[in-house]
Batch of 4 targets.
Target 1
Amino acid sequence: MNYTDKLAVLKKIYKIYDSMANTWSTACRRYCAACCTCNVTMTTLEGDLIAEELAAKDKTDLFDRLNTVSDNRRFLPGITTNRLAELCVQGQAIPDEESDPHWGECSLLVDNQCPLYPVRPFGCRCFVSTTDCRINGYADVDPFVISVNNLFLQYIEHIDAGNFFGNMTDILIFINTTAHRQGIRENVPKQASGSLIVNQPLKVLLTPPEHREKISPILNALLQIQDDYV
């Protein structure tokens, strides 16, 4: 699958998820940015889609904001979702990862609104809660929704296997370099900084047994998208 097709697949994946999410009863509303922290992660494929949007809408100045906070503390993933799934199946220890919402909000927010909203990464899309996080101090998410989110995270990583995964700030700073962006588009990614890790192909699902039957139609819909571009 060429890179243009990968971007098209990503957009369709977002569309499937958004259609489902619109049927869920959540407390999430406009101007609520309680979950919009600096700890969001994503793939370089998602970063490229965002870069396209910023260029098209003449918002590339937002990249400058990221450079001003590049030294701030934020979540730096040490393992991808697909690698995590493999370790779980193998019964191996899961590496400890440190994350704290108090490290700060997303540096791209404007008046508690996201300037990237139409192309926001899946790590933002899947933040849903049935109760108000600002009141309870935590998100309340249905276990099945968590399984659905994991499936989408794994599949998005799968179609971008070989490229990179990391904190949104680090991915966007990386993708804003012409040589880096050209490398991932030509499937010859340039060496990334130590803050990014390599996306892995999907080998095993994180879906628990009690959700497998219910999630099967969603998995089939994702597989069909890829088949349409092979």
Target 2
Amino acid sequence: MSDYFVHASSYIDFPCEIGAGSKIWHFCHIMTGARLGKECNLGQNVMIASRVQIGDRVKIQNNVSVYEGTIIEDDVFLGPSCVLTNISNPRAQVRRQHLYEPTRLRRGCTVGANATLVCGIEIGRYAFIGAGAVVTQNVPDYALMLGNPARQKGWMSRHGHRLIPAQNASDPLICPESGLRYLETDGKLRCLDLDEDTPLPADLQIGQQSYLNYKQQG
């Protein structure tokens, strides 16, 4: 008996690796040689191509295809119908399977619904790609990217809230939900309270009512 769930309508091409606690829902296809980590959740009609590497606790919403050459680290969120690619100049007449361009999604980043990632780039840790954005270049950690082509429009916290710039540039930016502090230095953002590779403490993994109060007061 497996320690993960696969809906009867889905296809799993063995050998592949599926971590404990993962859930694969209707009409998905996991191809030979793919690696899916622990406690992942794949929505309806998700395709994971051969040799794709996916970390733990990754959430992939409906109608997403993850093509060969993609590396997805832990805690990444892929929104409905977002698009990933692996060849920047595809032609049906030219065979380029040996020229796949790698795309890496770093820990904790979010890709919004209907966003497109052009291959050969890296999405930084906890970056936030807005719905419908078209990303053509590397994205820094915590960056908020919007538009076509996507441009950085600010910073996002690990809890997914836009950080308001401090009046004094040397002062930290505060997440309104978690209270975690961030500091921008030389065009880069880092968290002062947690290392970027440290999982959230258990008490910060559940959304807080205090943020709803913050929005109502704002």
Target 3
Amino acid sequence: MAATIRLMRFGKKGQPFYRIVVLEKARKRDGAYIEALGTYNPMTEPATISINEERMKYWKSVGAQISEGVKKLRLS
């Protein structure tokens, strides 16, 4: 199973809110996920990011790939 860490979009039209999740690489953006690692809210000033650092390190250690969107948040 190839896992990836990426953003899952929630919220209303024009008011996005994201969960940072681990899911299988072949899954859709909003498909079923393995584990939620945190949240990202770009609508606050400054943008709010909360993440479970311990679980993020675990998933990176077992080979999970990090998506471009999560890399842009500078979490990796």
Target 4
Amino acid sequence: MNGLVALLGSGEYLPVMDDVDRYLLANCGAGERTPRVVCLPTAAGQEGDASVNRWSTMGIDHFTRLGADVQALPVIDAESANDLNHATTVEDADLIYFSGGDPSYLYRSMKDSLVWQAAQKAWARGAVYAGCSAGAMILGREIPDFRTMGLRSKPAFGLVPIAFVMPHFDAIPLFAKPLASSLRGRLKEGEIMVGVDEKTAIVGKMNTEWTVLGKAKAHIFTKNESKSYAAGQKFSLGK
């Protein structure tokens, strides 16, 4: 992935994230032409047409307002993720945006699909990956199993050097705080977990510093240490 990666805690397609998305559009490799954006509501694919259509409409309205050429593709399951026309559109995109929903379903739908292969070709070229909530979680090494309070987890793509990505971090209710503690206890030497607050993103590239953008903070955990970073601050993922 040679392009920027943006992992959001929440707030996809809302005005509160305008500055973040303007930054992504300005750094997506489009140059002087209008950036091409593809919105993928795949993580909400099990929620029915109303939810998929809502995310699609929000994405189109949001990025049109920001001056982009945007399409929302009905990639809602493994079958549609293997549609060659969808894959071609994704491969030509400058910014590929995954909105929220079920991270495990998103991972299963994308794994080994034509759309995911096309996305990787776009990122290798320098296009931007943006993932909110579920879209952020699939880039880590594993997806926590919330039903077991983090004692077990499911596979993810492992495209960033993060064991677990925890979105909505500042909104996790008190009863779920043991989840973060459990996940932290599973970290091995040199591994990290990242918590991203709502209306906040971490943005960076592989092997470079990352920056916190948005309204709140990002939280970096190792097995024995933790540190929080406010908007505008930079940090390393250790690779």
